[in-house]
Amino acid sequence: MTTTPKTTANVVIVGAGLAGLFTALKLSPQPVTVVSGAALGEGASSAWAQGGIAAAVGNDDTPDAHANDTIAAGAGIVDEGVARLIAGDARQRIDDLLAYDVPFDRDQDGRYVLSREAAHSVKRVVRVQGDRAGHAIMSALIATVRATPSITILEGYEAQELITSGDGPQQRVTGLYLARADDAAARYKVTDLSSAVLATGGIGALYRLTTNPSHARGDGLAIGARAGAIVSDAEFVQFHPTAIDVEQDPAPLATEALRGEGATLVDASGRRFMVDIHKDAELAPRDIVARAVHNQIATGNGCFLDCTQAIGQEFANRFPTVYRRCMEAGIDPSIEPIPVAPAEHYHMGGLRTDASGRTNVDGLWAVGEVAATGLHGANRLASNSLLEAVVMAARAADDIAKTVSSDTQPTTGTVSRERSTHLPDFGARAAGLAMIRETMSSNAGVERDDARLRQALATLKDIAEAGHGDPVIENATIAARFIVEAALRRRESRGGHARTDYPDTDPEQARSRTMTLAGLTLRDSLASGELFSEITAGGGTLH
Ligand SMILES: Cc1cc2nc3c(=O)[nH]c(=O)nc-3n(C[C@H](O)[C@H](O)[C@H](O)COP(=O)(O)OP(=O)(O)OC[C@H]3O[C@@H](n4cnc5c(N)ncnc54)[C@H](O)[C@@H]3O)c2cc1C
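^ Those are the sequences you sent over. The predicted structure of the assembly is below.
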C-alpha cells in the first residue's frame, strides 16, 4: 500500500525536466516540492536533447545577433523584447550550469566548442560530448537536486488538476490533485499552497510520430487552462525534419547538428532536393525543411539523411547517441544514409506568461515548453528551448521568492489521500490516447486544412465524451483541442503552421493570439463566433 507523501513546502513545481529542476535549485534554500510523473531523469525531453543550448558566448557573437536570428526564425510574431531579454541572460545561465558541474565541451584554451544549427548566423550552440547535452545537463542537475535538502521530490505522482479559490481577479491557486498509476483507487490532494509552477513540457505524445517522451501529453497546458490560464499560439507546433524513421515510438532523433556539419538530405535516388527549395538548403528554417521532407515522403520519393561524406568514420565518436540509435535499428550511418521523417518535436504555443513566468492566474507560474513567453513566435530557432527553460526558470524563481518572502505567515502545504471519484479503465484510456495521436497526426500535422481540422475536432469531441471522468483523457483532449481550434482559426500559413487551403502568409495576421477554455466552452454553447482575443507582437505582457 502506498503511503501518503509529505511536503514541507508551500511551493510546488510540477515537472522535473530542466525547467522544473532549475526552478527548484534557484529557489533553494527556500523549501519546494517537485512532483514528477516519472522517476527523475525519465519522462523528460530535457534528458534527450542532443544539440545543446544556444547562447551568444563565442567571440564572433552578441546577444543582439542571437535575438535577431530568433526574431527572423519566428516568422513575424516573436516578442522582440522577450527575445532580447532571454538572449541577454544566456551567458549567466550557462555559468550557472557550469557551477552545477555540467561538462560543456571546451577547447585547450577553455573556450566553448560551439555547434552551428539551422537559421543561426554563427556557431552558437554550447554542447556536451558532441550530442549528449541533454543527458549530461540533466545528470548534473539531478545529482545537485538530490543533494539539496530544501527540495522534496515526489516521484511517480502525476498532477491532474489545480485547486483554486475565489473568483475573477480574486481567483488564486491553493492546491492540486495528484494521482499514482499504482494506486488508481485514490487521488492525493495537496493544499495550502502559495505558489504552483507548471513545468510539464510539451505535447508530442498527442501525435503518432513524435520525438517526445510518452509523458508529453500536454497535461500542464490543460491543467493551467482549466484553472483559467490564458493559452497563446497553440497552433504553432514544430515538426523536426529528421526523426529517424525506423518505426520506433518515440522516434529517435538525428540532431540538426549533423546538417550543420554538412550532412545532406537526399531522396531514394540520391538527389539532394533542398538546394532547389531554399538558399540555405539543409540549413533552412525547420518548418521549411520539415515540409520538404514531408512532401518527398508523400510523393513516394522517400527521404534520407546522408552523413557518409560529411561525417563518415568519425560518426561513432562525434555523435555517439545518434550512432547508437541507428545501429540498434540496423543502420550504419557512417556508410549508409539514414531514413528520416518529420515528427512532432516542440510546441511553440502554451500557457501565456510574462517575463517572470507568471500566468494571469494568481499563484500560478509556467516555465519551459509548457509556457509561451513569446520567444519562439511561429517557429522555434534550434536549441533555444533549453535556453528559455533555464532563463525563465531563474526569473520565475526570483519572482516567487519575492512573493513568498512578503508573506507574513508562510504556511506549509499538506497532502491527503482521498478515494478517487473515478476508477480509470486503463484499456479504454490507452485506446483513447491512441485515437488522439492518430487524429492529430492525420489532421493537425505538418500540413492542415479546414476539412481535416474540423474532422479532428469532431473526433476529439467523441473521444472526450467516451472518456468523460478520466482526467488523463480529459486533459489530453483539452490540450489537443486548443491546437486544433487555433489552427482552424489561423487562416494563413506561417512558420510551423501550414494550411494547404491558405498557403500564403497574411501580413494582417502577424500577431500572437490567445484563447481561454472558458472562451472555447462559451463558443460551444453559442455554436458560433470568434472568441479569440489578440495580442500584437511585442505587446504580450500580462502583468
Ligand atoms: C529528442 C529531443 C531533442 C531535443 N534537442 C534539443 C536541443 O538540443 N536543444 C534545445 O534547446 N532543445 C531541444 N529539444 C527540446 C527541449 O529538450 C525541450 O523543449 C525542453 O527540454 C523542455 O524542458 P521542460 O523542462 O519544459 O520539459 P521536459 O524536459 O519534457 O520535462 C517535463 C517534466 O514534466 C513531467 N510531467 C509531465 N506531465 C506531468 C504531470 N501531469 N504530472 C507530473 N509531472 C508531469 C515529465 O515527467 C517531466 O519530468 C529536444 C527535444 C527532444 C524531444
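The domain at 423-536 is CATH 1.20.58.100 (Methane Monooxygenase Hydroxylase; Chain G, domain 1). Residues 528-543 have pLDDT under 50 and may be disordered.

Shout if you want it in another format.
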